[in-house]
Design brief:
Layout lengths: L4 H17 L6 H8 L3 H8 L2 H12 L16 H18 L1 H13 L3 H27 L8 H17 L1 H8 L7 H22 L3
Helix pairs in contact: 1-2, 1-6, 3-4, 5-7, 5-10, 6-7, 7-8, 8-10
Length: about 200
């Protein structure tokens, strides 16, 4: 679907409001007022608030899909895992508003289409993680570990830091000029690399 500049502007505003307030608590009027347009224009472009949400998800979800071409040329299993995690974290920070919306939609399960898109995305990413693990096993440097559990570790760690920003930011006492997001992106990426490598190389 080709989107014009006005549609893209509406999408960005709606994403911000849906992420901040939730889909159900955000009205079409809220979006129209923020975009400085009338409600009819949103209905003209997207037909309904539900269709606007679907457009937002369809337009942005690919950014979160692990792309093997970003890391599969790396022969060393450890470096391949690291590059995959770099790619994973880059994707998460590419659009934090959309990630919040996807998380909310997966939790509420009120809208079947949104939930199915999120489910398919997770299934895809787990498959890609499995391939990285199996590659390392073939090379004799990893032991096999359930990729679904590892993926849940990745998601859970990221969400914990994101959802508890106010508490954690205060605990960190970051230096001026360093944003929470920049800190999180760098330190959490290093942490996940350490955790996954430790799990995949640990011997019982």
């Amino acid at each position: 679907m080709e989107l014009n500049n006005k549609q893209l502007e509406i999408i960005e505003i709606a994403k911000s409001l849906f992420a901040q307030n939730g889909f159900d608590a955000t009205s079409v009027r809220d979006i129209a007022q923020r975009a400085n347009i009338n409600v009819a224009m949103i209905n003209y472009y997207f037909n309904s608030k539900e269709n606007l949400l679907e457009t937002i998800i369809e337009h942005g979800v690919e950014a979160y899909r692990l792309d093997p071409s970003k890391y599969q040329d790396e022969v060393d299993p450890f470096l391949r895992l690291e590059k995959m995690l770099d790619h994973y974290m880059e994707s998460k920070f590419s659009d934090l508003h959309l990630y919040q919306i996807l998380t909310n939609e997966a939790t509420t399960k009120k809208r079947i289409n949104s939930a199915s898109v999120f489910k398919e995305l997770r299934q895809h990413n787990v498959r890609q993680l499995r391939e990285v693990i199996e590659y390392g096993c073939e090379k004799g440097v990893f032991r096999f570990y359930d990729p679904l559990l590892l993926h849940m570790t990745m998601i859970g760690t990221f969400l914990n830091y994101k959802m508890n920003k106010s508490v954690i930011e205060e605990m960190l006492s970051l230096s001026s000029g360093i944003s929470y997001e920049d800190y999180l992106k760098e330190e959490l990426t290093k942490h996940l690399k350490f955790i996954l490598k430790a799990i995949l190389t640990y011997e019982n």
